[in-house]
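For the sake of clarity, the format in which proteins appear in this thesis is described at this point. Each number in the token line that follows is a code from a learned vocabulary of backbone shapes. One such record is shown here in full, so that the layout can be seen directly:
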Amino acid sequence: MYRERRSRVRSIVDAVEREAGSGRAAEQRLGDLLMRPVTGVPIAIGLLVAVFYFMGVVVAQRVVGYAEGVLFGRYYNPAVEAAVADLFPASEWAAPVEFLLVNGNLGLLTITVQYVLGVLLPLVVAFYLVIGTLEDAGVLPRLAVLTDRGLSRIGLNGRAVVPLIVGVGCVTMAVVSTRMVGSRRERLITTALLGLAIPCSAQIGVITGLLAGLGLRWWGAYLLVLLGVLGVAGVFLDRTLPGQQDPLIEQLPRLRAPRPTNVARKTANRSAAFLREAAPLFGVTAAAVSTLDYVGALDAIVGGLRPLTAALGLPASFGRVLVLGLIRRDFAAAGMTDMALSASQTFVGLIVVTLFVPCILTMAMILRERDARSALLVWVGSWVTAFTVGGAVAAALEVIA
């Protein structure tokens, strides 16, 4: 039915459309190449690799790494910490306020500002720059058409390809990009898959280092588990969530060279709107987590996780890794580098921290973009999936051994 529909549409277009000029004909041929699977898939893969390299390597690792390590790590945070220490006297009433403002996890004036301006702002600008360029060039609608059939198997249409690719760079920004996906149902499926089985670039960097010492077969097993979870979760959500998948109805503008003024204007307007919406939400979330940390609730969570870590065959100290993952995903993977784990324990731990709940910034954005019920579904579902799959993998490795 899909092929017949596309064939019928093409025959109608060929019958009524007339073109003139060699430039227009070349654009049409390139557009046709982008939408034919034989030629379009290699072109799309190359394009998506370029987008991932720009978002995940150039921006997420180099630009953000410099902002976090140098601008904030060396200059801004120490200066703010010194100023706060001078401002508040050493007394019982001042200690909670000082901790709320400058603690090392999510201080309102230090780490929170670092996340918003040093991490999110570069990623936001880069993301909207890429999307604006692809939109203005007319490539984005064709990419959606090309991937529509494959994504329809997990209840999505072709528009979801962009959030899934952006998620490998930054899941928080990918949640924002789900705005371009059609229905509320498909946005929820895309958001759930992003929070469940898509590791961000910072986490991938640490995971790569840990898997490099284990061997190539562990890499293959890791990717196989993630792809399996992604497919099963997508099919499950497609069959259980009410409603039906929306068909892809996409207007195909002509291909052209993107206009810098259009891209710059859209990037600036969208980035400013995002920061106005997101910054207050991140501030409230950071204050809540810092309060829990100050009263010792986070340590209580570590203690409560001991039965689960024991069931996975992991030491009790792994609970601390999971608590770090609540704040930032790469913190969880990085916390494993100092632990003395066997190859199988390392593999199980990496599966769990990858499938574990999204970081606090992503959860805040899910709450902003979806609703409290959807955010709770993603959060609880991530807990259940991480420990269920991790336990199954641990049991399978024990049987194989």
Notes: The chain has 19 helices and no strands.
